[in-house]
Amino acid sequence: MTAASRNTLNAHYTDARIAQAVWSAVRALGFGGGRVLEPGCGSGNFIAFAPAGAQLVGVELDPVTAGIAAALHPAAQILPESFADTRDADGSYDLAVGNVPFGRVVPHDRRHNPGGHSIHNHFIIKSLRLVRPGGLVALLTSRYTMDARNPAARREIASLADLVGAVRLPSGAHQRAAGTTVVTDLLILRRREPGREPDARKAAQADSAGAAGPDVPPAVPPVTSLTQRRLAALPPDTRPLPSVAAYDQLLRLPPRASSPSQGDRS
Ligand SMILES: C[S@@+](CC[C@H](N)C(=O)[O-])C[C@H]1O[C@@H](n2cnc3c(N)ncnc32)[C@H](O)[C@@H]1O
Q1: If you measure from the C-alpha of residue 25 to the centroid of ligand 1, how many angstroms do you get, rounded to a whole number?
Q2: Protein residue with least CA distance to atom 18, ligand 1
Q3: If you measure from the C-alpha of residue 58 to the centroid of ligand 1, how many angstroms do you get, rounded to a whole number?
Q4: Sign of the CA dihedral running 129, 135, 139, 145
Q5: Residue 65 half-sphere exposure toward CB, CA atoms < 13 A
Q6: Ligand 1 centre and the CA of 42: distance in Å?
């Protein structure tokens, strides 16, 4: 009972529609199965929608909630412990998903929280370390991960991973399932491979190369075919493509001479 009352601040569970959308996103980004961590799994709202081929490990502090998760999801492994005490090896998961607990509490975790980050940031940073290089971390977190004035947690996150995408959910997103108007962000991060440059630095270098002058070739080739660009930039899409041949034809036309109505200003 004491554990349950201590936990009321964080006992907000994710709307099934949001959990399903997160799974769809990670699948679209290439997750096809493997070991999945849900830190702070509650009763298992993410575990419930896991695709075939995902082997779930949930970590839950509250013993009653952990028992419920284990009873509801017998195929998952539920660790009834604080995530600060979880001793899985770094890189031992392919993916982490979930909705982390928020607050100013600073978990004591000598190995994974020497920076003394708040619980939501500790969950993100430790999840990143437990996921293998190239693996994804898709977590709902307090808006203060991104908005806090102190950049220390964001710097540590950026040293480990590239931001794949982020969505700020509307304040009513958790009203129906959790009865709260708290503002949360979905952050999707990819654990960086050792020796790989951060995507943000590459993009900045590409930008400054483009701005260096007319002799420097642009980092991104000019668009010459919408069809090719669309196929190169997006993940595989099995739907039939509408024709854009007419637009490609326009791109291949020689530049038009200025029209007589615009006059010759040279
Ligand atoms: C916001 S709820 C989300 C639950 C679940 N992930 C979901 O999306 O429905 C956060 C959960 O983290 C648990 N929690 C809080 N502190 C924790 C800790 N130090 N270690 C593990 N779980 C914790 C809470 O008991 C709660 O179930």
Answers
A1: 22
A2: 82
A3: 10
A4: positive
A5: 24
A6: 5
The CB of 142 under 6 Å from ligand 1? The reply is no
Choosing among 1.20.1250.20, 2.70.70.10, 3.40.50.150, 3.30.750.24, the CATH entry for 2-212 is 3.40.50.150
CA 20/CA 179 separation, integer angstroms: 19
Residue with tokens 């890189």: 91
Residuewise pLDDT in 10s, the chain (266 residues): 565 555 555 667 899 999 999 999 999 999 999 999 999 999 999 999 999 999 999 999 999 999 999 999 999 999 999 999 999 999 999 999 999 999 999 999 999 999 999 999 999 999 999 999 999 999 999 999 999 999 999 999 999 999 999 999 877 677 766 767 788 999 999 999 988 888 877 777 776 766 554 454 445 454 444 445 444 555 555 655 556 665 566 566 666 554 444 333 33
d(CA 177, CA 28): 25
Alpha carbons 142 and 125: distance in angstroms, whole number? 14
Task: Say yes or no: CB of residue 13 within 6 Å of ligand 1.
Answer: yes
Domain layout of the chain by residue ranges: 2-212
Q: pTM, whole model, 2 decimals? A: 0.77
Q: How many whole angstroms from 123 Cα to the centroid of ligand 1?
A: 10
